[in-house]
């Protein structure tokens, strides 16, 4: 069993300001500053914004042990795991990996869904801090981390998993998503496909952007006409992907191949192709594996990630910080596997798929 104290979570940090100094700069009382940084209600938005401006200007770090002084070592023995949606099987595997490591340390994991909403993400992080969790693992909803800017200064160790915001100095554990998307797209191009549709989530999601970048890079490297790279973004859930594929395939220039950039989007694409009777005529590669994907006819070609391993590595990194190690921020990449099973090897047909 691991041992740590929240007092050791930010070794070597020199606080350069006090709450009184923040209050003076913001023109409010100390109690107001306390309420804002702890996420308590009933503070006017304009007032809260002045407080956060002062926090950033003074590089103020909250002493989160204050609410936990009656606990041994000042630690609550809880960590927060914030994921896109707890009902997504990918998030379930991620959770299991985090929980496996947390159990070794006799620590509870508090999981919450973000529903791909940056505002909800900020609220969830603030709520976790208010509950005095010892650390946070977050599957962020944004590319640039702007939604979390005001809470990254508060002194709680945070590890980003699966999705990592750009330009944020923090530990990150992801797959090789950009290169994996490029490899999958090249696989389709090499089989003669010149019009390929990529289905992605909203482009405020880091992994969606990276898969689009890998997809585009494959077209460029192969020397294929960029007009054949069809992006369908902003999709949330299987039903949205199903509607998108039905529309694509009934359009004037249907693709001969589909690359679905997330497991739920793959499910929707499979439903649409099945309804249209096109599963054996349209090439299809999915990002993330699915249960029984190898039992389909044709079996599904996929980029397989290892979310459980990502969760374990992210949790191990967090607990090293909680145990007092002075670590430099690191980006840890977990390799993917490209698994050919049949659907991604279908050759293009030049008719209208009717």
From TrEMBL:
The organism's place on the tree of life at top rank: Bacteria
GO molecular function: DNA-binding transcription factor activity; transcription cis-regulatory region binding
SMART domains given in the database record: HTH_LACI
Segments forming domain HTH lacI-type: 17-71
Keywords per UniProt: DNA-binding, Transcription, Transcription regulation
Pfam families per UniProt: LacI, Peripla_BP_3
UniProt-listed PROSITE patterns: HTH_LACI_2 (PS50932)
Protein name: Transcriptional regulator, LacI family
């Amino acid at each position: 069993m691991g041992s740590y104290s929240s007092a050791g979570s930010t070794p070597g940090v020199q606080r350069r300001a006090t709450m009184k100094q923040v209050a003076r700069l913001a023109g409010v009382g100390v109690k107001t500053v306390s309420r804002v940084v702890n996420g308590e209600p009933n503070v006017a938005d304009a007032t809260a914004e002045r407080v956060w401006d002062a926090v950033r200007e003074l590089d103020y770090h909250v002493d989160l042990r204050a609410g936990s002084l009656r606990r041994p070592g000042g630690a609550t023995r809880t960590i927060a795991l914030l994921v896109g949606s707890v009902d997504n099987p990918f998030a379930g595997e991620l959770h299991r990996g985090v929980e496996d490591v947390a159990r070794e340390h006799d620590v509870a994991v508090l999981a919450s869904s973000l529903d791909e909403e940056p505002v909800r993400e900020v609220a969830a992080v603030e709520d976790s801090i208010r509950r005095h969790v010892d650390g946070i693992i977050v599957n962020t909803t944004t590319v640039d981390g702007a939604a979390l800017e005001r809470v990254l200064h508060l002194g709680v160790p945070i590890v980003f998993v699966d999705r990592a915001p750009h330009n944020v100095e923090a530990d990150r554990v992801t797959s090789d998503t950009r290169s994996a998307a490029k490899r999958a797209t090249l696989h389709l191009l090499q089989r003669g496909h010149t019009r390929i549709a990529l289905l992605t989530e909203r482009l405020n999601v880091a992994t969606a952007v990276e898969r689009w970048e890998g997809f585009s890079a494959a077209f460029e490297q192969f020397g294929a006409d960029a007009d054949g790279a069809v992006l369908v973004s902003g999709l949330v859930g299987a039903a949205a992907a199903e509607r998108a594929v039905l529309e694509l395939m009934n359009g004037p220039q249907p693709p001969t191949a589909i690359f679905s950039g997330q497991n739920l989007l793959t499910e929707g694409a499979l439903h649409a192709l099945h309804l249209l009777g096109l599963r054996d005529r349209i090439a299809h590669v999915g990002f993330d594996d699915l249960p029984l994907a190898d039992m389909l006819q044709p079996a599904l070609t996929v980029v397989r990630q290892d979310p459980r391993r990502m969760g374990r590595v992210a949790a191990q990194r967090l607990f090293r910080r909680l145990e007092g190690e002075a670590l430099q921020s690191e980006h840890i990449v977990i390799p993917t596997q490209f698994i050919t099973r049949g659907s991604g090897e279908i050759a293009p047909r030049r008719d209208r798929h009717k």
